[in-house]
Each structure stands twice: as C-alpha cells, then as structure tokens.
Amino acid sequence: NEFPREVYEWVYYWAHKDPQRLVITDCDKKEFNYSQLLHLARVQAVNLYELGVRAGDRIATIEMNSLDHFSMIIAASLLRAVLVPLNWRLKDPELLYMINDSKPQVLLYGKKYRQNSEYLSQAVKVFDLEELSCVEKFESDIKTEIFNSKIDELEKQFFDYGKLNPVCPILILYTSGTTGFPKGAMISNLQTKQNAINTVVDWGLSEGERYILSAPLFHTGGWNVLSLPLLMSGGEIIIHEKFDAEAILNDIERHKVTLYFGVPTMFISMMESMAFPNVNMSSIKFFISGGAPCPP
After folding, report:
1. Cα dihedral across residues 185, 157, 228, 125: positive or negative
2. pLDDT tens profile 10-35
3. How open is the CA angle 121-127-132, to the nearest 5 degrees?
C-alpha cells in the first residue's frame, strides 16, 4: 500500500522527485522528461474536463502508438475516467459496435483516422487528439493561471483517497471477437497497480530500464507487459508507431535498450532482417515473448 496507487500518481511522483529524468522518446525521436509528460497529461485532462468528461466516463481513442496516445491514460487517471483504445485495424462497422457497446463520452482520433471518426460521429462526439493535446493553448499568463487553478481542483479530487474505489476500471480493452462479438475486458486501477508491482519485483526491474513500445495500445501487451510497470519504476520508453523489425533492431543499439516484448512472429521477423547480424544487443537483459509458443 506504500506504492503510489494510480497511474497519474506514478508520473506525479517522478516529476517531483526527478523532473529531468527521461521517460519518453516519441516516434519523431523527440525526448520528453517526466515533468513534460506530466504537463502534457494535465493539458489533456483539463481539455477533456472542458468537454464534459467526468469520473467514470469512457474516453475512446483510435490512433497508432504515439506520445499523445500514451499520455492519455495518465490524463484519464487524473480524471478517474476510463480509456478505451480501439483497434485501428478494424472496419468502421466493427468500430461502431465497440462505440455503441462502451458508450464513450468522446472519441479522440489521430490524423490517419479522421475518415473513421467521421463515420463514428453518428454515435459519439469526435475530437482531434493532437489538437486536444496542444500544450501551447495555456502559455499566456492569464491562461496559465486558469489552467493551474483547474489542475489544483482536479488534483484535490484525485488525492481524496476516501473517494477512491480501486476496482473501478481505468482501461477497457476489446477482445478480437473470433468466437463472437468482441468483449470489453475491464482493467481496474488495482489490477494495473498490482501488475506493475509484480512485474517490477519479479523481473528485477530497476530505475532507468529502457524499453521499446511497439505492441499496439489497443492490446494489453502495449500497456501492461512493460510500459506501465516502467512508468511506475522510473524507466524510459521508446515509442514506435507500429512494429518494424529493422527500426526496432536499430533502436536497440542506438538507445541501449534493456528490455523488449514481442510475439514469436515479431522475433522471427527481426532475426530474418538484414540488419540482425550487425546489431549490438549487449545492452539487452531479456526479451519477453507471449501470445504463442516461442520456437527454439
């Protein structure tokens, strides 16, 4: 119970203990520290609050891996809302089923999914994720004062642990629906916390671990295998928009990555890449494989 309780508190802790500590390298190779990540999540939270998002409301997203998408779970945590990342590989009618099933307050879309969002707007209010994440919106003195006042209000509510229900969900992740309609698996704050603690302790993770996030954020592997545990333990996350074997191999060497998660097909693709024989992997502590038996 001495561990910070929720995702927002993990980032809040590191942003105050070591604000310059690197936490994210985004798809454009820009680096962000914990203080900057906290500020981005606060901007998103205030903007969502202005759109009417309150505790218990669902926030749907359709976007590939990105800094704005990843930080949305921190914003949702501050609001005690629920993030519902949608599978961007699906067709519009399949996405519409998930929207009607989860009943989100808003849908946030990446630029590549504007057309999908137009179709889904029949069932939910849609907003541009990049615009909602614009930190410049609050840079004037007057707007900064208003912003800080709103953050004080939201954090006062957040840190009122008497109102915290640890089994309330923070994520809804949809199954593939291979045997029927997809089902929304609810992941609670308590599950997220205990998974992070168990991962850090059982795998012996330490501050400053470096990890490449290439698993999609609509899948539990994108969040719970290593990303959120490293957010708790003060690690670094290199975000890849999607899996690309050569790009991952290059970044393992460039960033001296210590951990990587994938499924067997991904590891086979990496081994078959022309870049594989020449990559220095001496920084790697271990690879984690899941989803299917790993061939020898």
Report:
1. positive
2. 999 999 999 999 999 999 999 999 99
3. 170
Coil vs helix vs strand at 240:
coil
What is the number of H-type helices and E-type strands within the chain?
12, 12
Strands (E), the chain: 22-25, 31-33, 58-62, 82-85, 106-109, 125-128, 169-174, 184-188, 210-213, 236-239, 259-262, 286-289
Report the alpha-carbon distance of residue 190 to residue 204 in Å, rounded: 21
| Tokens of residue 195, six digits | 């998974």
- pTM attached to this predicted model: 0.94
- Which DSSP category does 252 fall into? H
Burial 232-271 (b: 16+ CB within 10 A, else e): bbbbbbbbbbebbbebbbebbbebebbbbbbbeebbebbe
- DSSP-derived secondary structure letter, 293: P
Residues in the chain, total: 296
Helix (H, G, I), strand (E, B) or coil at 31: strand
For the record, the structure tokens of 78 come out as 């501050």
Alpha-carbon distance of 134 to 141, in angstroms, equals: 16
Please say whether the beta carbons of 218 and 185 come within 8 A: no
In whole angstroms, give the CA distance from residue 222 to residue 75: 17
Tens digits of residue pLDDT in 152-193: 999 999 988 777 788 899 999 999 878 889 999 999 999 999
